[in-house]
Amino acid sequence: MIDGLPPLREVIAAHDLRAKKSFGQNFLLDLTLTARIARAAGDLTEADVFEVGPGPGGLTRALLAGGARRVLAVEKDRRCLPALAQIAGHWPGRLQVVEGDALAIDPRAHLRPPIKVVANLPYNIGTELLIRWMTPPAWPPFWQSLTLMFQREVAERITARPGTRAYGRLALMVQWRADPRIVLTLPPEAFTPAPRVSSAVVHITALPAPRFPADPRILERVTAAAFNQRRKMLRAALRTLAPDIEHHLRAAAIPPTARAEEIGLEAFCALARSLAAPRA
Which of 2, 106, 176, 206 is deepest in the core (most CB within 10 A)? Predict the structure, then answer.
């Protein structure tokens, strides 16, 4: 036991918290595992933490026991609120629970920097939340790091390297502005109910600035066009971006006959800069 509160199975039984597919819920009941996730987020003693989808509060308890200065937990399922209120009472002044949709809440209104995001994300909104956190209007973002649970396939797409099947837009978006790494993998049987897929925790550390200069809107257009037709040569996949696309590819030192999965982040950024530059 990490905090003197009842085991999670007792909490779930007491509040009749059966996981609902509509909320994308799969509860992680092993407090040893939730403690490992909290530790993967690094030193929490000087940080506020934003948690999405705490459910019965297993990870919430680990974050508080791990020394988080303050936790903001956003939960859409009101059935979980009494269990979370019990945790808040056990840790007075350190846990704020908000009922609502994480997509509609700005954590900056409730927390002070540095802010770390740590969450066992509901599968149905996990990728959308990640994309929002990686594409703010200005960089650096409000968060210092993200420690997030995904389906293992998504985690592998985030950390993928050129030349692999998992490599694509998601890898480029994250790796342009941050350092991602898989820190923990979990089998389906670790959850209740057990999902059909394995899961993985990804720790993402924000960089002070993007790795290579590029206009984010142009880079997004380039990578979208390239990977939407990833089997095509780039001179064909990108021809809608510019009538002289082969000139821009060569200016970025990219062979026009190459395919998207062969091209690294630095080259894509060089291509975006070439497309942004006025022609003489």
Answer: 176
